């Protein structure tokens, strides 16, 4: 494929981990691009508390050359090397503690403030970020009759923003999160930060990554360094009072209600929470394809609305960005239209998300079985932890998944297919 006479115009919608990682990957993978990130927020900041950096997240940070930007003193790792522990929220009994045997020390699970990861990513971004730019609609070309771009094999796209700005691009990457394609999930997370000294002063409180379980709700506590402890509480709600993301909880009784059967230790933890934010969780059905029109790709939460089920959203976004950039580069270096690269991206990532949704289907089946058993608090907690959280749950492979190995295998198979096709057409 000849290099285009003008740069390939790429718009990335969203400046979260997905959008930033896509920019970092693409600015190196394609030598003839003009990339712009559009973000609806008026100020570039992270909303929320902490996030997981799993082994697969670290591998992608290495691939992005971003891990060097993270100061080890700004992240939390447990002293005994466990990734996470699960306790009975009523009694405090330790039900299981997941280790990390065989994981390289630099890839051990960590927890960090979201701003730590954002800062590390921004240090490697070399493209402009345009704020106050919420995408309203996409049309093909400025007048809907644009000719095919010989590089992408598709018409150009006109992007219309809420601030009145309109621009035309050749490739659109949707990285604007779960609300890009999804609906409300029916669960709510309450999140807040508590001074670490208050929680570490509670007798019997572990300085660890800990889930405190009820039959269907849980409380999560984790050190985030910087003198702060993270508190996240998950509860089912029949109808959220608000769908506003990160809205401050005004009525304390609303926040405390789901945890009334939890034990005194958890109650004391909750008593130290002052400013709590509500985060309605968004999820949706699995998308059959995460590319469209030969010129649009979805990455991150926009491509797989899983409502944070695996605690690995950043890793999934980075994996998407890695494969997308490699697939587009693969098409370009083989004189193929970039739309064929998008199709290859979809063939690599969609089966992975199908497997993840399969795990969630099993979890729902487990919940349905539990409802028929009439279990008490402790029995229900043991059932839930065994089938959905412990080693028997069978999803540990998610964090050991090596997308780089998968990519090398798939692209090798695709190159062999192209070779055989070409040989079949020789005279």
Automatic annotation (TrEMBL):
<comment type="similarity">
    <text>Belongs to the paxM FAD-dependent monooxygenase family.</text>
</comment>
<protein>
    <recommendedName>
        <fullName>FAD-binding domain-containing protein</fullName>
    </recommendedName>
</protein>
<keyword id="KW-0560">Oxidoreductase</keyword>
<keyword id="KW-0285">Flavoprotein</keyword>
<keyword id="KW-0503">Monooxygenase</keyword>
<feature type="domain" description="FAD-binding">
    <location>
        <begin position="10"/>
        <end position="356"/>
    </location>
</feature>
<dbReference type="InterPro" id="IPR002938">
    <property type="entry name" value="FAD-bd"/>
</dbReference>
<dbReference type="GO" id="GO:0004497">
    <property type="term" value="F:monooxygenase activity"/>
</dbReference>
<keyword id="KW-0274">FAD</keyword>
<dbReference type="GO" id="GO:0071949">
    <property type="term" value="F:FAD binding"/>
</dbReference>
<dbReference type="InterPro" id="IPR036188">
    <property type="entry name" value="FAD/NAD-bd_sf"/>
</dbReference>
<dbReference type="Pfam" id="PF01494">
    <property type="entry name" value="FAD_binding_3"/>
</dbReference>
<dbReference type="InterPro" id="IPR050493">
    <property type="entry name" value="FAD-dep_Monooxygenase_BioMet"/>
</dbReference>
């Amino acid at each position: 494929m000849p290099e285009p006479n003008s740069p390939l115009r790429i718009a990335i919608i969203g400046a979260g981990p997905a959008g930033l990682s896509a920019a970092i990957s693409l600015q190196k993978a394609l030598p003839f691009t003009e990339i712009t990130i559009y973000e609806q927020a008026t100020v570039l900041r992270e909303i929320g508390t902490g996030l997981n950096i799993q082994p697969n997240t670290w591998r992608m940070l290495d691939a992005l050359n971003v891990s060097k930007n993270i100061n080890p003193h700004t992240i939390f790792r447990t002293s005994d090397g466990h990734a996470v522990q699960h306790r009975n929220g009523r009694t405090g009994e330790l039900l299981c503690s997941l280790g990390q045997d065989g994981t390289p020390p630099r890839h051990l699970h960590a927890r960090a403030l979201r701003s730590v990861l954002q800062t590390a990513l921004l240090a490697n971004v070399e493209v402009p970020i345009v704020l106050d730019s919420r995408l309203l609609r996409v049309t093909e070309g400025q007048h809907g009759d644009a000719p095919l771009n010989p590089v992408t094999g598709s018409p150009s796209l006109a992007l219309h923003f809420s601030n009145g700005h309109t621009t035309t691009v050749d490739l659109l990457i949707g990285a604007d999160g779960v609300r890009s394609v999804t609906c409300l999930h029916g669960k709510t997370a309450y999140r807040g930060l508590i001074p670490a000294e208050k929680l570490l002063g509670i007798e019997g409180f572990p300085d660890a990554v800990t889930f405190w379980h009820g039959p269907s709700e849980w409380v999560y506590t984790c050190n985030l360094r910087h003198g702060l402890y993270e508190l996240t509480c998950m509860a089912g709600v029949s109808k959220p009072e608000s769908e506003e993301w990160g809205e401050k909880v005004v009525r304390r009784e609303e926040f405390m209600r789901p945890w009334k059967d939890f034990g005194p230790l958890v109650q004391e933890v909750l008593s130290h929470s002052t400013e709590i934010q509500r985060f309605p969780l968004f999820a949706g059905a699995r998308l059959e394809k995460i590319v469209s029109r030969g010129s649009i790709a979805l990455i991150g939460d926009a491509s797989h609305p899983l409502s944070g089920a695996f605690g690995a959203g950043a890793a999934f976004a980075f994996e998407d960005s890695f494969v997308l950039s490699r697939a587009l580069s693969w098409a370009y270096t083989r004189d193929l239209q970039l739309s064929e690269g998008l199709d290859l991206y979809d063939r690599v990532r969609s089966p992975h998300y199908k497997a993840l949704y399969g795990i969630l289907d099993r979890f729902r089946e487990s919940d349905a079985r539990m409802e028929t058993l009439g279990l008490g608090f402790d029995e229900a907690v043991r059932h839930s932890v065994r089938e959905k959280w412990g080693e028997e749950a069978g999803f540990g492979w998610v964090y050991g998944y090596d997308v780089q190995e998968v990519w090398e295998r798939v692209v090798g198979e695709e190159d062999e297919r192209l070779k055989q096709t070409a040989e079949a057409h020789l005279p």
